[in-house]
Design a protein that fits this description.
By secondary structure, the chain is α/β, with parallel strands linked by helices. 54% of the residues lie in helices and 12% in strands. It contains 10 helices and 7 strands. The longest helix is centred in the C-terminal third of the chain and has 29 residues. The radius of gyration is 22 Å and the shape is globular.
């Protein structure tokens, strides 16, 4: 082959690679149940503004048919809005990205209901003034971090889809699974109370709560990997990810790492 032609072909290939349309991932933090400030109609209108190629839902494959249609009717904002959108725009496709068998995994491991039982026990110990001063401060901070999130979640979607709210969510979850564990790991009450798992084995509140914290990491990391896999399977496409807004900070953090040096951009729905 003529050297000039070869160089020209290489240059064309390089230019083509550089100009290939970037995939877009838009992570939208949601409220699962309809409220006046966030309901299926509001979410549908957001989707219409974005015009996505794919809508990813916080569900696993058991909720979908083999051709990725919802198996059952639901009153969640995400499923109503995405169903309405794909009926109007059939070219848009739905996909699950949740950790497979999430609820069964938690129940079988014993992390549920020990997570809820543990936080209730911490509450009762604090009300009875049995926590140390340091433990009480941790618990009060954990409770206090929920207050601004309740306020933000009552406003328009932009208010719970931004870096500032993400940082509050991140701190709140840090207190839930890291700081509260300092209480459960120190106090004997959590080592001597047990829950019986479906297989008949007993698990302490302390161990179950640790598993719950581990699963928070595993679940969010798995969801981010699933989102990434779908994006890489469909290069150049616009992908909307719907997730409970408390997950948004973690998923975005993981996606920023996973998309580094790839032809994928992360965008906000209001900057689309």
């Amino acid at each position: 082959m003529n050297k000039t032609i070869l160089i020209a072909l290489i240059l064309v290939t390089i230019i083509a690679c550089k100009t290939e349309k970037a995939a877009e991932i838009i992570v939208i933090g949601t409220l699962h149940r309809p409220e006046s400030n966030f309901n299926p109609e509001i979410l549908f209108n957001i989707l219409e503004d974005i015009q996505p190629d794919f809508i990813l839902e916080e569900l696993d494959s058991s909720f979908f048919t083999s051709n990725f249609r919802h198996k059952n009717v639901s009153n969640s904002n995400e499923r109503i809005a995405s169903e309405k959108y794909t009926e109007k725009y059939p070219i848009t496709q739905l996909r699950p990205y949740e950790f497979e068998g999430r609820n069964e995994y938690r129940i079988n491991s014993g992390s549920r209901p020990t997570d809820g039982l543990t936080t209730k026990l911490i509450d009762s110990l604090n009300r009875a003034d049995l926590l140390t001063e340091e433990e009480a401060k941790i618990h009060l901070k954990y409770k206090a971090l929920l207050e601004p999130l309740i306020v933000l979640a009552s406003k328009s979607p932009e208010n719970f889809n931004n870096p500032s709210t993400d940082s509050i969510c991140a701190e709140r979850q840090y207190y839930q699974y890291t700081m509260l564990s300092k209480i459960t790991n120190r106090r004997n009450e959590f080592a001597t109370r047990y829950h019986t798992k479906p297989n008949g084995e007993k698990i302490s509140y302390r161990d179950g709560y640790q598993l719950a914290g581990n699963f928070w990491d595993l679940r969010n990391q798995t969801m981010a990997k699933n989102i990434m896999r779908i994006s890489e399977q469909h290069p150049g496409k616009k992908i909307v990810v719907l997730c409970g807004f408390m997950h948004r900070y973690y998923i975005l953090s993981e996606l920023k790492k996973l998309t580094k040096d790839k032809n994928i951009s992360l965008k906000e729905f209001y900057n689309n």
